[in-house]
Specification:
Blueprint (H helix, E strand, L loop, with lengths): L8 H42 L13 H4 L3 E4 L2 E2 L5 E7 L2 E12 L2 E11 L15 E7 L22 H8 L4 E8 L22 H28 L1
Parallel strand pairs: 5-7
Antiparallel strand pairs: 1-6, 2-4, 3-4, 4-5, 6-7
Helix pairs in contact: 1-4
């Protein structure tokens, strides 16, 4: 590009470089949204095909891509002495998930029995669990959340990390998933099961098109200004 009067060449080059970097960034963001679109579409299809059927037996080997949100039936015996509350916010308000270990065939299967509000954390007020458990398979949630981390030493849990839960409580072999228990319509009070999120917003395509459009518009503006300046 020919230098405009009063503008140093280095500044023109810098501006062009910044515009090129922005165009590449917009394209990469669009590509990322397209990958997210594929992931979200697969997730929605998986939920629709697995979560609403009759419960099946637990898989021999858990594969997250193949078994997440699969409705299962799990026999066993709850360890009533080791309940763990994991921080949660649901449509019912702030509170905790009630995680309890289910002992079956020499292994530990953690079960999310459901939501317990902040004012109902006394175990004496919880309904007794029912076996066999029916619910949806969910992969373990290691470490914590984006903003908070689990602190096993302080008994503070913000994600359902089943391996860490078993280690903290001295339990045996643990499967790499937990079961989100169904809601028991005959059970009054807390915990309240069946709160697994099964509907997902899918706006990734519109976001991707927005990023691509911004890249195209910026490229067009730079090309127009460059050609106009060269002609002058």
């Amino acid at each position: 590009m020919i230098e405009q009067r009063g503008r140093p060449v280095w500044l023109t080059v810098l501006l062009l470089g910044l515009c090129a970097a922005l165009i590449v960034t917009f394209i990469l963001l669009g590509n990322w949204q397209m990958r997210r679109l594929t992931w979200k579409t697969d997730l929605i299809e998986a939920v629709e095909s697995r979560a609403f059927g009759d419960p099946v037996d637990l898989p021999e080997a858990f594969e997250p891509d193949a078994h997440s949100y699969l409705r299962v039936r799990a026999p066993g015996q709850f360890d009533m002495d080791k309940p763990v509350l994991v921080k949660a916010v649901t449509g019912l308000g702030p509170g905790h998930w009630l995680m309890m270990p289910l002992l079956a065939d020499g292994r530990t299967i953690w079960v999310n029995r459901g939501f317990v509000p902040s004012q109902a954390q006394d175990p004496a007020g919880w309904a007794a669990p029912v076996t066999p458990v029916t619910g949806l398979l969910r992969p373990s949630e290691p470490t914590g959340t984006l903003l908070e981390r689990n602190d096993p030493g302080a008994g503070r849990w913000v994600s359902r990390d089943v391996e860490a839960l078993s280690e903290a409580l001295g339990l045996g072999k643990t499967v790499p998933y937990f079961i989100d228990a169904d809601h028991n319509a005959e059970q009054a009070g807390w915990p309240r099961g069946g709160l697994t999120q099964l509907s997902f917003r899918n706006t990734h395509l519109s976001y991707a098109l927005t990023w691509y459009a911004m890249a195209a518009l910026l490229f067009g503006a730079v090309a127009y200004l460059t050609i106009a300046r060269l002609r002058r």
